[in-house]
């Protein structure tokens, strides 16, 4: 009896020893395969050793716990390339999710519609999808792409789920993960949207508008395609005499350049050529963010040679000037008004049953001081 137990005990020990050896062997083999190559561990790694390895930095800054820029040029190029590759791969996945990448198509016009995660904005997006967005066709000439932009930083789980679901349906959302939706972040939102477009899309012109703007997409695209040069173009309804607010909701604390804002196109809708978008993207790290996002763009673009084309067919002030059939953009439209315009456009080829004028427009006089630029007559 005792002999049987001993031999069973011995074989158990042998089995345990064997499996342990196998485990150790497998572990060693796999860790030698994967661990030493930092390019496969992603930057989400928070372990200090991994981070050191990943950044390969002899000069890790102990204060900020981040990697100081590598000293030698060779390491720098290597790391930079890798980071860039990762970014491109991430963006590629994301863009394929959007359904816009495909053959890295070139768009004549990309419309970025600033929108939000709330249900009212959702209704506006759906209205735009059923109305003026139907005039965009990414694959036919002129190639036009319409995308809605919103920040997703600190969104609630249900909001994020709803937005994700919406994007799976429509593939037309640009979700900015580092942007918290808030009135005081609008300028940052425009800036990030410009940077995103510059890095991810090939296009000639960008139209920025709001989700309560009715846009005559095909007409804008037609006029753009007739231009001989696509360079340095800033097209909209300009203001050069606006004074920064000294108090209230729209208070402008950062402004110090002069008594008035610099000339800028009003935000209900304007067009900027891709080269100017690129210049803004290049400066994006260092530019001052004013409270007013439209003003901010005017300032960012102020040093650059560009054709600033004032056009009163952009009805883009804080309230609509009325209805005119030649309007390219009509701001402050309710979903109902958008549908009415769309139906008229489809049935009669016009957006106003009867033209109305609530307030006058002005022509911008570039030959006088900006404070006298904009006389309504
Ligand atoms: C703006 O966005 C940033 C980053 O998303 C966030 O940390 C900040 O609180 C936001 N600012 C406001 C005023 O909401």
UniProtKB/TrEMBL annotation:
Entry's EC annotation: 2.4.1.-
Pathway, per record: Glycan metabolism; chondroitin sulfate biosynthesis; Glycan metabolism; heparan sulfate biosynthesis
Any one Gene Ontology BP term: glycosaminoglycan biosynthetic process
Top EC category: transferase
Species this protein is from: Geodia barretti
Transmembrane segments: 12-35
Claim: Cytoplasm is one of the keywords in the record: no
Name of the protein in question: Hexosyltransferase
InterPro entries (UniProt xref): Glyco_trans_31 (IPR002659)
A GO CC annotation given for this chain: Golgi membrane
Subcellular location: Golgi apparatus membrane
Major localization listed first in the record, in broad terms: Golgi
A GO MF term: galactosylxylosylprotein 3-beta-galactosyltransferase activity
Highest taxon of the lineage: Eukaryota
Membrane topology: Single-pass type II membrane protein
Cofactor section: Mn(2+)
Composition-biased stretches (Basic and acidic residues): 45-63, 71-87
Keyword Nucleotide-binding: no
Sequence segments annotated as region (Disordered): 41-88
Family indicated by similarity: Belongs to the glycosyltransferase 31 family.
Keyword field: Glycoprotein, Glycosyltransferase, Golgi apparatus, Manganese, Membrane, Signal-anchor, Transferase, Transmembrane, Transmembrane helix
